[in-house]
Write a structure and sequence with these properties.
single chain; alpha/beta; Rossmann fold; 3 domains; 6-stranded parallel beta sheet; 4-stranded parallel beta sheet; 12 helices; 42% helix; 15% strand; transcription regulation; HTH_LacI; LacI family transcriptional regulator; DNA-binding
């Protein structure tokens, strides 16, 4: 492999000049920069990552603390998988790499990882449970951005969707389709999306003049099985709902399955709307009405917030970002059965 000294000799410049081309390109002339880059391509030269870290005080590495319950199915949720792809793409476009951090360490585990790997910042995704390691990280001054979880810290912020607004839009849509007994399969109350979507559901019912019935609120877990079990509870009531807003698409798909197993027609007997717009939402039959989140926007917003703090070590965290959502109307929210 070519070394920096080989490249310097090839170009007739000093090693320091070659270093500046890669680490501080504005400090050399355009002609020199272009000549060194052409020679580097010919020689197959790649700058040493550790050397660049020493020279620039940056590793171009961002840690990902993903703890959605390592003993549960959190890691495989399709929305989180798609969101991770968007995040990786947005960071890659800005020249950063993602490093997955181990979970289950003590309260200083993530901070040690930041120091060990010279990480420029950290993104974290979790299941909403109290995590001392994430709290310490957010309060440490390391640039941090959380997905769907409010955090506090001078250099910590978060990105989320308009969860309450999206839930309200789904409920209003079901109402406009003639539904009056609208139940919800809520997400876990400890999570920000779960709590916000439940609040949006309740606010929409109040604005529409519909009663809030305690038996029409069943907490799920954002997964297929939880939605299926919750729907069976709702269908066992003396007065069944004629519509269900599920706070996540996987729960909505499970709810539709439970209704069909009970011999009901969807949407004729009971309408269903979800939240997320995961890829299977348009493929299941009947196709799922849902509230779409901006997955690519999530990744771009996280990257922008994180890099703004990395670029300015003295800057405070930007304010939280709340991304807009949109209602996607498909088959599961059609009109009720005539008569």
């Amino acid at each position: 492999m070519a070394t920096i000294r080989d490249l310097a000799r090839r170009c007739g410049v000093s090693v320091a000049t070659v270093s500046r081309v890669f680490n501080n390109p504005d400090a050399v002339t355009r002609e020199t920069r272009e000549a060194v880059l052409r020679a580097a391509a010919l020689l197959g030269y790649t700058p040493s990552a550790p050397a660049r870290t020493l020279a620039t005080k940056r590793s171009r590495m961002v840690g990902l603390a993903w703890d959605t319950g390592h003993r549960g199915p959190g890691w495989r949720h399709p929305f989180l998988q798609e969101l991770l792809v968007g995040l990786k793409t947005a960071l890659s476009e800005r020249g950063y790499h993602l490093l997955m951090l181990a979970t289950g360490e003590d309260a200083d585990g993530h901070l040690r990882a930041v120091r060990r790997h010279s990480l420029d910042g950290v993104v974290f995704i979790d299941d909403g449970t109290a995590d001392p390691a994430l709290t310490r990280l957010a309060e440490s001054g390391v640039p941090c951005v959380s997905l769907d979880r409010p955090v506090t810290g001078r250099r910590a912020t978060y990105v989320t969707s308009d969860n309450a607004g999206g839930a309200g839009a789904a409920v209003r849509h079901l109402y406009e389709r003639g539904r009056r007994r609208i139940a919800t399969i809520a997400g876990p109350g400890r999570t920000h999306p779960g709590a916000e979507r439940l609040a949006g559901y309740r606010a929409a019912l109040a604005a529409l003049g519909l009663p809030l019935r305690d038996e029409y609120v069943v907490e799920g877990d954002f997964y297929l099985g939880g939605g299926h079990a919750a729907m069976r509870r709702l269908l066992a009531l003396d007065e069944c709902p004629d519509a269900v807003f599920a706070a996540g698409d996987e729960m909505a798909v499970g709810a539709v399955r439970a209704a069909l197993e009970a011999g009901l027609d969807v949407p004729g007997d009971v309408a269903v709307a979800g939240f997320d717009d995961i890829e299977p939402a348009s493929l299941v039959r009947p196709a799922l009405t849902t509230v779409a989140q901006d997955r690519a926007g999530f990744g771009a917003a996280v990257a922008a917030a994180l890099i703004s703090m990395i670029d300015d070590p003295d800057a405070a965290a930007p304010p939280p970002t709340v991304l807009p959502v949109r209602l996607v109307v498909r088959e599961t929210s059609g009109p009720p059965r005539a008569g």
